[in-house]
Amino acid sequence: MYEPLLKDMIDHHCHMMQTQGSTENAMQLLESAFQQGLFAIIDAGDATKTQQERLEFFSPYERAFIVIGQHPLDMERPFSYEEMVGVLSEPKVIGVGEVGLDFSRQDIDRRKQQTAFDVQLTLANQYDLPIMLHIRDAFDEAYQMVKRVGHPRVVVHCFTGGKDEAKRWLDLGAYLSFSGVITFKNAQEIQDALAYAPIDRILCETDAPYLTPVPHRGKPNHPIYVSHVYEQVAHLKTVPIDNLVAQVKENFLSLYQLYHLE
């Protein structure tokens, strides 16, 4: 019997409204992914769109969800916490994200990032929502903030740390989401972290339109390429791909409390 290419796979983090340059193309890509069996996606946002525009875009798709938050590199862009709070109870909104700390640039205001992160950690707790983290060159600072707040449902998006960072996040109860970076030749440290992480704490993502996996490097990324992330994770974990797909689906449903989708 024919099985769809993406059957029961999940793209845990992408930016659909930034893909391929137009709303129509983004919708075609999304519809193609679902036709090929994709179970669900989470869209992590586009700072140029309002939250209402995002909700309207994804409303036709039962298993397309969004997270809402102020990206740490968007501190100078207009952002309305009032608007954010106004939609956090919408069924399509299943988390706060992507939020965190990014100290990779010299010209950023670290204090402003930390203040915004603290506010959004508090909102995630208040609304009992998972929090999707963006952490770059700021592991210790972000880890301590999350640990202090004690948020129970945390996922580190596009995890690119090593085994030691993975251990500390996992010890806090966090999930680790791996992107196409896991397919790159220079990804040994990340692959070591993946080898350490238990399969019941792993998620897979594209971060489309960024970080296109091998063998499609140089092309825009989109959700159907999440299959290459799954294949590499299954290979590195030495587990059958079907077992990985089933476990990642269970992880997703558990983290976001979406068991009604089964």
TrEMBL record:
Residues that hold a divalent metal cation 2 according to the record: 134, 157
Metal-binding recorded as keyword: yes
Coiled-coil intervals: none
The keyword Metal-binding belongs to this UniProt entry's keyword annotation: yes
Alphabetical UniProt keywords: Hydrolase, Metal-binding
Gene3D superfamilies reported in the protein's UniProt record: Metal-dependent hydrolases
NCBIfam families: YchF/TatD family DNA exonuclease
Protein family: Belongs to the metallo-dependent hydrolases superfamily. TatD-type hydrolase family.
Protein's name in the database: TatD family hydrolase
